[in-house]
Amino acid sequence: MSSIPLLCSIDAVPPSADFGVAAAAAMAEICAGLMQERAEVSPKYFYDPLGSKLFEAITHLPEYYPTRTERGIFERHAAEIARSVGPGSTLIDLGAGNCEKAKRLFPALRPEHYVAVDVSTEFLHDALNRMRSLFPAIDMQALGLDFSAGLTLPHSVSQEQRLFFYPGSSIGNFTPEAALAMLCDLRRLCGDTGGVLIGVDLVKPAAILEPAYDDSLGVTAAFNLNLLNHLNRLIKTQFNPGDWQHRALFNAPQSRIEMHLEARRDLCITLPGGVRRFARGERIHTESSYKYELLQFRALLVKAGFRKINAWTDERHWFAVCHASI
Known about the structure:
The protein is α/β, with parallel strands linked by helices. It contains 10 helices and 13 strands. The protein has one domain (1-216, 292-326): Vaccinia Virus protein VP39 (Rossmann fold). It has helices spanning 16-34, 49-58, 65-76, 78-85, 100-109, 121-134, 176-190, 206-212, 219-235, 294-303; strands at 8-9, 90-94, 113-118, 139-144, 162-166, 195-201, 244-251, 256-263, 267-271, 274-278, 283-290, 308-313, 319-325. It has an 8-stranded mixed β-sheet, sandwiched between helices.
């Protein structure tokens, strides 16, 4: 849920032209979203260095159940998950962040290679340096890329026993149709020996869901509002976060939590190539987080081409971890 360079390894310095292409693509995407009748910005733009740190803080909040619930599932079922996955994998951590979730699984999964993937390149670089000092025997690689529109891996990533690790229910940030497309992409990249290990947030009452995205300390609000600071740097806008307020709600018909930024007053925002006016109360949609029934998500995995599916849940059935392979 950083700055943009797309499809470049942070272990090497890419050509400056790559940055120019990436910046132009980001600018076009952001402006197109803001100019829609119902303005929107992709949640991937939450993750500048401050946004990454704020999200890390969110995972420790009492209202935010997904991280600790998923961690409990991994702790209780580590041996079963390891048997399902098998040793010696190339563990590809999508949206790795601080790499903490993968680190906890290393003793059970015993990967041969670890590939940390995240759009927040600066944050990822620091995290992987810490990981290398803790696990010097494991070959590690960092990839700074945006995989939201499709995933391409360099030849340096082994094609054998690829295990795509996508925890934290981030799959919910995609519409069901886009989630299926992503799972199909991962199925293709798995080859004949790989699989996915994925966290899924399950349907539950709004009284539990909404506080998880609108905490009493206001950390999630700060995370959402910081998006505007990131846009100011990326596309040279002049958003004032004080002109906006955080909104989170559960859209029951769509089975998704929505986060928005709502204008506190009438505003006129200058964008590259245009002007966008916002009336007081008008919103920018910044994130959707879809919640699934477990059978519904299993069906999505099958539709993507996976055949062997094991799933583990917590006692309250709030969250699930699925391992799917060929």
